[in-house]
Amino acid sequence: MSGRGVLFALDDEDLARLGEARSDREVLDIVTDLEERWENACELDRAWDAIHRALTDGRLDLRDASPPLSRAILGGTVLVRTEAAIVSVKGADDVVAIAKALAPWDEARFRAGYQRIDRNDYGDLDEEDFGYTFAWFERLAPFYARAAREERAIVFAVDL
């Protein structure tokens, strides 16, 4: 994946497998299986970083400082956090709350969140990056809404 983030809406079997995993390696093997099947996925490419920042306080932080939006990407229950990968899962109840919180977000609201991003921590904030990030962001609300209707948990995974 190399910095590319992806969300998967989980069926009960995959959620149970993640819950039973006893090591980072087991969790990552399950994520690899999800990637190979590529079902119920929402790819965010490298935009996941800026999307998380725009939905929260502008920082890339795993702390659950502003739920439910802080759980949309990085937040939730962190299953793996290493220098090489992050994997977190959000339960079906969180998915419903996230879907409701994302529903009113339009380009203007996302731009306001994007402008809160710390340039010193993130890098260049310009129209090209905003356009790229917003294009990936537009996939997020419909994905969460569908997962909420289907009462699915969601897992986020990224190789760093």
Keyphrases for this structure?
single chain; 160 residues; alpha+beta; Hypothetical protein yfbM fold; five-stranded antiparallel β-sheet; 8 helices
Describe this structure in words.
By secondary structure, this protein is α+β, with helices and mostly antiparallel strands. The chain has one domain (5-159): 3-Layer(aba) Sandwich (Hypothetical protein yfbM fold). Helix content is 47%, strand content 18%. The protein has a 5-stranded antiparallel sheet with strand order 2-1-5-4-3, sandwiched between helices. The radius of gyration is 15 Å and the shape is globular. The N and C termini lie close together (8 Å).
Q: Identify the CATH architecture.
A: 3-Layer(aba) Sandwich
* SSE sequence, one letter per element: EHHEHEEHHHHHE
* Principal-axes shape call: globular
CATH-defined topology: Hypothetical protein yfbM fold
Largest sheet: 5 strands, antiparallel
Helical content band: 40-55%
In the sheet with the most strands, the strands line up as: 2-1-5-4-3
What is the residue-mean pLDDT, rounded to a whole number? 95
Count of all domains: 1
CATH superfamily: YfbM-like super family
Query: Which oligomeric form is depicted?
Result: single chain
The percentage of residues in β strands lies in 15-25%
The radius of gyration computed from the alpha-carbon positions, rounded to a whole number of angstroms, is: 15 Å
The low-confidence runs, each spanning 5 or more residues with pLDDT under 50, are: none
Cα separation of the termini? 8 Å
Number of strands: 5
User: What's the helix count?
Assistant: 8
Class from secondary-structure proportions: alpha+beta
The CATH class assignment is Alpha Beta
